[in-house]
Amino acid sequence: MPRIYVHPLPVRIWHWINAFGFIAMIVTGFQIRYIGLIDLMSFRSAVVLHEWIGFVLIGNFFIWLIFYLFTDKIRVYHPELNPMKHFQSSLRQAMFYGYGIFKGDPNPHHVSVYEKFNSMQSMSYQVIMLLLVPLQFWTGVLLWDVKRFSGMIDVLGGVRVVDTAHVLIFIFFSGFIFMHIYLATLGHTRMAHITSMITGYEETPDEHGHAEANKH
Amino acid sequence: MAIRRSILNMNGTNFHAALITTARLALVVFALAVAGPGASAAGSALTQLDEQCLACHSTKGMDMKLANGDKLSLYVDGAAFGKSVHNKIGCAVCHASTSFENHPPVKKKSAGSREYSLEMNKVCESCHAPIFKLYDGSIHASLFRDGNSYAPVCTDCHSPHAVMAKSAYDTASGAPCSKCHDPIFQAYAGSVHGKATLGCSECHRAHNVKPAGDQLKGACFSCHPDAQESHQKWLPNAKRHFDAVSCPACHSPEAKRKVDLRLYDNVAQQSVAEKAGVPQFESRARSADKKGAGLDAMALHSLLREFNREGIDNKTTLRGRLEVSDGVDAHKLTRSAQAIRDCAKCHQQGADAFQSVTISIVGPDGRQLRYGAQPEVLNSIISVDSLSGFYAIGGTRIKLLDWLLALAVLGGLSVPIGHMTIRWLFKRYAKKIIGKEDS
Fold first, then answer.
1. Hey, where are the domains in chain B?
2. Is B344 within 8 Å of A43 when comparing Cβ atoms?
3. Is A44 close to B236, i.e. CB distance below 8 A?
4. Using 50, 70 and 90 to split pLDDT, how confident is the model at B436?
5. Domain limits at A77?
6. pLDDT tens-place string over residues B376-402
7. Looking at the partner chain, which of B383, B404, B426 has a beta carbon nearest the beta carbon of A160?
8. Would you say the ipTM is above 0.85?
9. DSSP calls for B350-376
């Protein structure tokens, strides 16, 4: 089966640190917010872990950012500037996940080096990586030392406002993580996308092969 | 009334007080010089004139009936007076209005013992003007100005004829403070500070006694300068805790805790104070609290709107502070090893610290004026706006966000499960179709 190198090493390193880091952040986040209801560890341990992992993720974010800023791979995130075209391809992708996939239709998106994301992915990953993740890091750092950043916190409307923003994004990620893992299993085999994020190579079955795989 | 005026206009009397003080001290020095080396050598020995006074006034049970029927004790313990810091100035300096011609006074009698104390306060002030200035800024003077008949004046704390240096504070009985604050003294006596036999004034000052509040934190740091540093070693967001949590809230572990939400002026960067003579806080709070059951989230929001009605938006906000519910508990301080270190004590829903909430403003006398609020104000979505400056993770979390989170997790789980189920059903359905076609 033909293979394409779509996930360079820095991206894979970033992805797996990010994946396990975010799971750890969600778990410790739950523990911090719901102590008494969940007792995996002490409140203080959860806070300390949450802070350390948070800083690791911030550093890790820059691996992703620097890699894409300084290589031509940034094209994978290039937005489709024609809204009608973008809407149509997104709708096609949504129709596939919402109906076509059940019938065994081929995935309308064909992976290539510079188009590894389908329309829905490219749009959602831009919102996540350029808005939600930085916002979560920023609010997290402010909450890490409320006194040190009290001036900025006051400008933003107070500690409760900052915390509410942090929790809202946490809520989004807590829901998103399940969807992300599930969508990762929708390759031509259940492990295809996950394996490609380890090896870097995405197998690209022809339409027939894909349809066959979906029938099993 | 006269003493009230003198306290209020202290600056104006400073010059006269200093003049009188100087003259009197000069007189004392002169008298001591005339009395000769014998008197000086005696140290605390009383002058001949004082002994003359004591000839009558050392009679136990000697008293005088005042106009309102109060009995004023005229007994003076000569030995105690001899040891007092006033022994050198003698009787006549304070009782200057007394002379052989008008003694005992038959015409001019004080209206009562309280009035007599106030009259004598003026005499104290004539020598101790700087102390009066300190007293003027105290909670005791504020109570006095408010007309509180129990507000202490000089002689309530300092036994008139046995005035001792401050080192004479009685650590065993807590006198003179325990005379009015006995329950607090009893709590303090069992505390780590009480056992170390510190005096009340170590934290509260002797004359400029301040009401409980942020200013007392300075007193803690004056003896525990490394407190912030030592807390930072184990307490996340330690400085924030120092801002929003009073020391006894953790160091008096058995105390009942509560949240006080203080009106804060964001522009002036200080607590909002009730204007003297124009009380607004309570009337506004009562008007917002239509049910009279304590301010709920909406009522609190409208109260804040009232305070922001004129002027800049969001000028007045609320800053929360976790503190102990009463002064007695505030004095039951323990050794640091026994202090609360378990974060879960406060950082979980239903924590006792968040079951009692008040809204407050600084009153004209410096004390907080409080109005009750319902605990739900801490967990309401409306509080994101009205209570933006106070948040304790877990303990004051917004309930609506809990529901949103449950929905997100449920959605995150059910969408893949639903999708997988439909895929499985389709496969089964397709097989049946294929099977039928084959047959």
1. 2-168, 242-386, 399-439
2. yes
3. yes
4. low
5. 3-215
6. 999 999 988 889 889 999 999 999 999
7. B383
8. yes
9. T-GGGS-EEEEEE-TTSSEEEEEE-GG
Rounded distance between C-alpha atoms, residue B2 and residue B396, angstroms: 51
Among B174, B218, B212, B208, which residue's Cα sits nearest to residue B193? B174
Angle (CA) A39-A43-A46 rounded to 5° is: 90
Answer whether B426's CB lies under 8 Å from A103's CB: yes
pLDDT single digits (tens) A110-136 = 888 888 888 888 888 999 999 999 999
Enumerate the residues of chain A whose CB falls inside 8 A of the CB of residue B344.
35-36, 42-43
Domain count, chain A: 1
H-only helix segments in A34-106:
43-69, 83-95, 101-103
- DSSP-derived secondary structure letter, A76: G
Q: Is the pLDDT of residue B324 over 80?
A: yes
Question: CB distance from B2 to chain A under 8 Å?
Answer: no
Residues of A in contact with B408 (CB under 8 A): 171-172, 174-175
Contact residues, chain B, for A36 at CB < 8 Å: 344, 348-350, 394
Cβ within 8 Å, pair A36-B413 = no
| Nearest alpha-carbon partner for B352 in A38, A36, A160, A146 | A36
- Retrieve residue B301's tokens: 């929001």
